[in-house]
Amino acid sequence: MMNNKVKDNGISLPQIPKEKEYEDFIAAILQAGGYYLERGIIHRIKQDVLELDIVTTRFHKDHLEHTISEIKSGGWGFSDIFKVRGWLDYLDLNKATFIVQEPNQTMEISKDVAAKINVALINNENLDCTELLNVYSIDKNTITEEVIESYRYAFALEAEMVLYLHCRAKSDPAKQGFQALEKFLFEINSNSFFENKPVNRLNKVFRAYKEYKNITARIAEELENKPYPNSGDGLAINKPQFEKIFYKAQAKSVLYVALYAELLARLTILKSCIEDILIGPTTDFSERIQHFILPENIKNALREFLNEPYSYLYPYFWQVFIYLFGGFILNDKKDEEYKLLSSTTKIPINEIPNAFKAFDKLFPLGENKSWFIQQPYTQITVMQFFPLPLSGIGANFRRIIYKNDLDASYENLSKQLSKGHSIDDIIKWNNLAYAFLNSSKRKKKP
Fold it and tell me: Are 374 and 363 in contact (CB under 8 A)?
């Protein structure tokens, strides 16, 4: 990833990734291949019971498929395979993969044993990925190195943002907002996952969404040396902090992590809605009660999604828009942007506006208001309250895909955009992502 200020000292990703970076590599391929991802899911009952590396969801028009994946870049054995089988039984799922970078001496025997317990053992030696693509039915011609690399950067950035929060919470335990934000992230990503029905998860996440309502604004108050507000009702990010994180956007801030957590909660609610639709009506009384107590805006959105032919693809569409496109559209290249979004997500171009309106339906901001606005003094349409470090991933992605011959510089991208501050914001977002990633060990060695 380029640092626009220090072009000869950018950030690179290892060609032979290991451990967490290997998980990111596999996740990037699956995301690029059409799968909705949930990652690093921890089941905690007083202590950690299990941790799932990746859970993929493939959305079809009339059904969905969940697959859990355990990923090993180093040593492994039969006990690891049987552990994954135990997870399948515990979670009441029926598909699992065990992906290894280093095959053992009895690979064929290991594969036979794994197959008998319904676990697909995948040999990914030398990052060949042929077996991986075959098992997940991914056409290698539909994914590119640029997309995989962008997702790897996005997942690395996501990890750095969460780590930054953990460090701040540990170094300043008196800040109630930091502790609350850690709990909020755990509720969304991990705790809610283990609800056995989409409607139950939907209600659980929405309760957390309300409990931690406007957590970014609440933390912003505390950062101004004010007491952490007990409620987020009617609260907005104060002006000094708003200008700092959205207009200046020059330094790392825990507020970006809070914005990311709020966005993740909304995305999880959307996914749960679509899963609930695909599973279909229920006669179970307890589930009917759970549907009855849903907020009116959620119930209204569910009814509208039922009549939209490609709503089943909305969760994946939104992950692509967040992690690859960075939450914005370049107006000067709108046709190209929509064409790429369509080819990536399989939502027809004429249906993309409906996909973008999903958040307006689920989380209405008020009459005639939208989550999408025109960025001032630019030709960029942005999502409101988006964590701008992730916009830096989208900025870097545009630099690469709109290169001219071999010129993949921001100067080249600037020539393709209208006059104004579009390129200034794009570079600013790039440098913000760089600020987070630069604190990791991913710096390019001289």
Answer: no
What are the distances in angstroms from CA 334 to CA 321, 328, 339, 343, 380? 14, 10, 8, 14, 9
User: What pLDDT digit, counting tens, does each position of 238-248 carry?
Assistant: 999 999 999 99
Instruction: Point out the residues of the chain with pLDDT beneath 70.
Output: 1-10, 440-446
Q: Identify the bridge partners of residue 372 per DSSP, sorted by sequence position.
A: 383
* Overall fold of domain 35-137: Trna Endonuclease; Chain: A, domain 1 (3.40.1350)
Report the largest interatomic distance among the alpha carbons of the chain, rounded to a whole angstrom. 64
Q: How many residues are recorded in the chain?
A: 446
Who's near 296: CB < 8 A, 6+ residues apart?
none
Residue 420 DSSP symbol: S
User: What is the pLDDT at residue 326?
Assistant: 98
State the pLDDT at residue 440.
66
Q: How do strand 96-100 and strand 64-72 relate by DSSP bridges? A: parallel
Residue 425 to residue 431: CA distance in whole angstroms: 10
pLDDT in tens, 335-345: 999 999 999 99
pLDDT value, residue 367: 86
106 contact partners, CB below 8 Å, separation of at least 6: none
In angstroms and rounded to an integer, the radius of gyration of the C-alpha atoms of the chain is 22
Tokens found for residue 122:
């995948």
DSSP notation for 207-248? HHHHHTTTHHHHHHHHHTT-PPPS--TT----HHHHIIIIII
* Torsional class of 137: left (φ above 0), alpha (ψ -120 to 50), beta (otherwise): left
**Rounded Cα–Cα distance for residues 194 and 367 (Å):** 36
CB contact set of 299 (below 8 Å; sequence gap of 6+): 291
Q: Give the pair of three-digit tokens for residue 301.
A: 């959105």
Q: What token pair was written down for 371?
A: 């989550």
Residue 164 CB neighbours (<10 A) = 18
Q: Is 435 helix (H, G, I), strand (E, B) or coil?
A: helix
End-to-end CA distance of the chain: 15
- Which residue from 317, 315, 178 is spatially nearest to 257, judged by alpha carbons? 178
Burial of 240 (0-12, 13-18, 19+ CB in 10 A): exposed
Q: How many angstroms separate the CA atoms of 24 and 34, rounded?
A: 16
In this predicted structure, what is the pLDDT of residue 182?
A: 97
pTM of the model: 0.95
Beta bridge partners of 351: none
- CA–CA gap between residue 144 and residue 122 (Å, rounded): 21
- pLDDT of res. 294: 93
The CA distance from 88 to 415, in Å, is 52
